[in-house]
UniProtKB/TrEMBL annotation:
Homotetramer. It is an enzyme of class 1 (oxidoreductase). Its EC number is 1.2.1.3. InterPro entries: Ald_DH/histidinol_DH, Ald_DH_C, Ald_DH_CS_GLU, Ald_DH_N, Aldehyde_DH_dom, ALDH7A1-like. This is aldehyde dehydrogenase (NAD(+)). It holds the Pfam family Aldedh. Gene3D superfamilies: Aldehyde Dehydrogenase, Chain A, domain 1, Aldehyde Dehydrogenase, Chain A, domain 2.
C-alpha cells in the first residue's frame, strides 16, 4: 500500500526507537499487526528486549540533560514543525489509524487533526509556562514559584486512540522540557512507528538531540517495568480501570507521579425540556462512534419518563439506519470491534443483561462473517435496563446503550453518579435551572460535564480526565501542563538583614 510506504512502514519493522534510530535484536520475537477490518496482517514488528529498554532509558536520560536547556519557545518551534509534518501526512496517517484500529476513516482523520490541534496549542503554551509572584511578609524579599521539567516521561497508551493520546502527552511534555518513552498498545504498533518517524525526522532536521522521542513495543510486562522504574518520574497511562489499579500502586510505591486516564461509564440525562432531536443525534454518535470503544462513549441514557417512549421510538428509527461495514469506505458509520475477544465480551454483557432482567430492544448480534470482511463486526445494541443492574454498573467496551427512565431530576442525578467511574457526562435541557443544577457541586461528579452536547468529542483546549475509578488524571489543555513539571518555590533576600518568617528571633 503506497500510503504505508509514504509513512515509512515496511513489511517488517523494528519496535525499538531512540529518536530516529531503530534497533532490532538477534533473537527476534515478532508482533503481527492485524487489521480488524478483514483480519489481514498489515506488517510485523519486533518486540523490544530487556536490554533495549535499558538502552532507551539511558539515552533518554542523556537527551534530557540537553533538551531541558533548550529555551521553551524553541522547543515550541520544534513542536510547530511536527504539527506541520502531521498536516502533510494527515491523510496517510488517518488511513493507517483506520486500517489498524478499525474506526471509520472520518474518525481516523479526526484523530490526526486532534494531534495537529494539540501541537498548535502546545506552541502557544511554550511561551506561557508561568509561575506566580507572591507578597513576602519580610521586607526586601521576593517570593515566587516556578516550574521545571521532570525528566523522562513514560507514556502508556491504548488501542482506541492510538495516536491522539500520545500527542496530548508528548507535545505538552516536550515544550515543558521533558523527554518521552512511549509504549503503545500492542494492537496498534504501526501507528506508533509512523508517529515516531514523523517526530524524530523533525528533530534530526533541526540538529536536536536524539532520545527526546523514544518508542518501546511489547506486552504489559514493559508497562509494568516502566511503572516501577525510578528513572521515570512520571507515568501517564491510558486504559482500563483494571490496568490503572495495577500501574497506579506500582508508581505510588516508589513515590512517582502518575496521570491515569481509565474507564468511563458515561451517561446523558434527557429531561422533558430537551430538544429531543439534538439529544438523539448526540446519543447515537456517542454510543456507536468508534464502535463504542471510546472511554467517553455514551453507555447510559437516563430519560425523563414523560418523554421516554418518544426518545426510545426515535432511537429505534435511527439505529435501524446505521450503516455497518468497511470503515475505509465512504458512507460507513460503524466499523469492526478491535478483535474477537471484544465481540465475545459484548455477547457476554448482553447475556448478563437478560439474566438480570433487562431487555435488548434492537441489535447486539455478531454479523455474519460471510457478508462482512471479518468476524469482528456487530450490530450496535439498544437496551432497556435499570441503573442498579451489575452489568450496567460495568464498562463494556462495545456499542451497548442502556435506556433508563427517571421521574425527578434528583433521581436522574443520583443514578448518573451511582457508578464507580466518573469521566464524561451530559444533560440535554433547555431549562436554565436544570442545566445549572447539573453543573453545580450537587450535580455531575464527572471530570467532564456538558450541556446540550454529548459525552464524546472533547476539544483539546480543556483539561481531559475524570474522577473516581477514572483515575483523576488530566491531560491536554487548560493547565494540564503543570502535571509534566515540578513546582519550585523561591525566596530571594535582597536586603542586608536576615529576618525569619513568622517574626521568629534567633540572634547568634
Amino acid at each position: 500500500m503506497s500510503f504505508l510506504s509514504r509513512l515509512g512502514i515496511e513489511s517488517v519493522n523494528n519496535g525499538t526507537w531512540i529518536g530516529s534510530k531503530s534497533y532490532s535484536w538477534e533473537h527476534r520475537e515478532y508482533l503481527k499487526s492485524i487489521s480488524p477490518i478483514d483480519d489481514s496482517v498489515i506488517a510485523e514488528v519486533s518486540w523490544s528486549s530487556d536490554d533495549q529498554y535499558e538502552e532507551v532509558v539511558e539515552e533518554a536520560q542523556k537527551a534530557f540533560i540537553a533538551w531541558r536547556k533548550v529555551p521553551a519557545p524553541q522547543r515550541g518551534e520544534i513542536v510547530r514543525q511536527i504539527g506541520e509534518s502531521l498536516r502533510k501526512h494527515k491523510e496517510d496517517l488517518g488511513r493507517l489509524v483506520s486500517l489498524e484500529n478499525g474506526k471509520i476513516l472520518q474518525e481516523g482523520m479526526g484523530e490526526v487533526q486532534e494531534m495537529i490541534d494539540i501541537c498548535d496549542f502546545a506552541v502557544g503554551q511554550s511561551r506561557q509556562l508561568y509561575g506566580f509572584t507572591m507578597q513576602s511578609e519580610r521586607e526586601e524579599h521576593r517570593l515566587y514559584d516556578q516550574y521545571h521539567p521532570l525528566g523522562p516521561v513514560g507514556i502508556i497508551s491504548a488501542f482506541n486512540f492510538p495516536v491522539a493520546v500520545w500527542s496530548w502527552n508528548t507535545m505538552i511534555a516536550a515544550v515543558c522540557g521533558n523527554v518521552m518513552i512511549w509504549k503503545p498498545s500492542e494492537k496498534t504498533p504501526l501507528t506508533a512507528i509512523a508517529c515516531q518517524k514523523i517526530a524524530s525526522d523533525v528533530m534530526k532536521k533541526n540538529d536536536m538531540p536524539e532520545g527526546v522521542f523514544n518508542l518501546v513495543i511489547g506486552d504489559a510486562s514493559i508497562g509494568d517495568r516502566m511503572a516501577g522504574d525510578t528513572r521515570l518520574p512520571l507515568i501517564s497511562a491510558t486504559g482500563s480501570t483494571r490496568m490503572g489499579k495495577s500501574v497506579g500502586p506500582r508508581v505510588a510505591s516508589r513515590l512517582g507521579k502518575s496521570i491515569l486516564e481509565l474507564g468511563g461509564n458515561n451517561a446523558i440525562i434527557v429531561t422533558e425540556h430537551a430538544d429531543i432531536e439534538m439529544a438523539v443525534r448526540a446519543t447515537v454518535f456517542g454510543a456507536v462512534g468508534t464502535a463504542g470503544q471510546r472511554c467517553t462513549s455514551t453507555r447510559r441514557l437516563i430519560v425523563q419518563s414523560s418523554v421516554f417512549e418518544k426518545v426510545k421510538k426515535r432511537l429505534l428509527e435511527v439505529y435501524e439506519k446505521i450503516t455497518i461495514g468497511n470503515p475505509l469506505e465512504e458512507g460507513t458509520l460503524v466499523g469492526p470491534l478491535i478483535d474477537r475477544q471484544a465481540v465475545e465480551n459484548m455477547q457476554n454483557a448482553l447475556s448478563e443483561l437478560k439474566k438480570q432482567g433487562g431487555e435488548i430492544l434492537y441489535g447486539g448480534e455478531p454479523l455474519d462473517s460471510g457478508e462482512y470482511p471479518s468476524a469482528n463486526y456487530v450490530r450496535p445494541a439498544l437496551c432497556q435496563a435499570k441503573n442498579e443492574y451489575p452489568i450496567v454498573q460495568e464498562e463494556t467496551f462495545a456499542p451497548i446503550l442502556y435506556l433508563i427512565p427517571y421521574e425527578t431530576l434528583d433521581d436522574a442525578i443520583a443514578m448518573h453518579n451511582g457508578v464507580d467511574q466518573g469521566l464524561s457526562s451530559a444533560i440535554f435541557t433547555l431549562n436554565l435551572r436544570e442545566a445549572e443544577r447539573f453543573l453545580s457541586a450537587t450535580g455531575s461528579d464527572c471530570g467532564i460535564a456538558n450541556v446540550n452536547i454529548g459525552t464524546s468529542g472533547a476539544e483539546i483546549g480543556g483539561a481531559f480526565g475524570g474522577e473516581k475509578e477514572t483515575g483523576g488524571g488530566r491531560e491536554s489543555g487548560s493547565d494540564a501542563w503543570k502535571s509534566y513539571m515540578r513546582r519550585q518555590t523561591n525566596t530571594i533576600n535582597w536586603s542586608t538583614e536576615m529576618p525569619l518568617a513568622q517574626g521568629i528571633r534567633f540572634d547568634v
